[in-house]
Design goal:
Keywords: Cell inner membrane, Cell membrane, Cytochrome c-type biogenesis, Membrane, Transmembrane, Transmembrane helix, Transport. It holds the Pfam family CcmB. With 218 residues, the chain is mainly alpha-helical. The chain has one domain. 83% of the residues lie in helices and 0% in strands. The protein has nine helices and no strands. The longest helix has 29 residues, at 155-183.
């Protein structure tokens, strides 16, 4: 499992689909929003939680189609399907690699981008906490979408249409936690729901993604 994780991390950083692309897109979103809605700080601070979470969600979406595509193209996916490591474990490792190069850097850099949107000071720790809790679910659900569409030509659009509705609960609870934290209210309840969504996703999605891969590899 460690060898597969290290291999995927190396491929992600070498093939141009790593954290640099996600961070650049996140920065572009946070930079363009003030131009679209105006520079007034009060208005930006009200919409900042939602915009930050939408930006992080879309940034994670950029490289999802590469989770299994490279392995499918060079035949490595067939080897993984017959390896001693269960295919469910391989799916989980690949989702972890995606999170390490996209979700985790986005969570750690989000406070810097939040400055552009005038997020109130009390919301910064909750922004990081919600992204750390929620982005693993984004990567795992993305792995499921990538497994369903692997091998399809131009499957990226289909994968986006499949995955985006599944992202809605994570987006709702994540943005609500940041909004409550920024307003000085108690953000624990949405964080608990966010953690529940993530844990449920981590428990169930590897089996669904592995089943989809087995169907596509027949």
């Amino acid at each position: 499992m460690w060898a597969l994780l290290i291999r995927d991390l190396r491929l992600a950083t070498r093939s141009g689909g790593g954290f640099g692309l996600a961070l650049a897109f996140f920065l572009i979103v946070c930079t363009l929003v003030p131009f679209g809605v105006g520079p007034e700080g009060g208005q930006l601070s009200r919409i900042a939680p939602g915009i930050l979470w939408v930006g992080a969600l879309l940034s994670c979406l950029l490289s999802l189609d590469r989770i299994f595509a490279l392995d499918f193209e060079d035949g490595s996916l067939d080897l993984l399907a017959t390896a001693p490591l269960p295919l469910e474990g391989a799916v989980a490792v690949k989702a972890l690699a995606h999170w390490l190069v996209t979700g985790l850097p986005l969570a750690l850099s989000a406070p810097v981008f939040a400055l552009l949107l005038h997020l109130p000071g009390p919301g910064y720790p909750w922004l990081v906490a919600s992204l750390v809790l929620g982005t693993p679910a984004l990567s795992m659900l993305g792995a499921f979408g990538a497994a369903v569409t692997v091998g399809l030509r131009r499957g990226g659009l289909l994968m986006s249409l499949l995955v985006l509705p599944l992202y809605v609960p994570t987006l709702i609870f994540g943005a609500e936690a940041v909004r409550r934290g920024a307003a000085g209210a108690d953000p624990v309840t949405p964080l608990v729901f966010l953690a529940a969504v993530t844990l449920s996703t981590l428990a169930l999605t590897p089996f669904a993604a592995a089943a989809a891969l087995r169907v596509n590899l027949r």
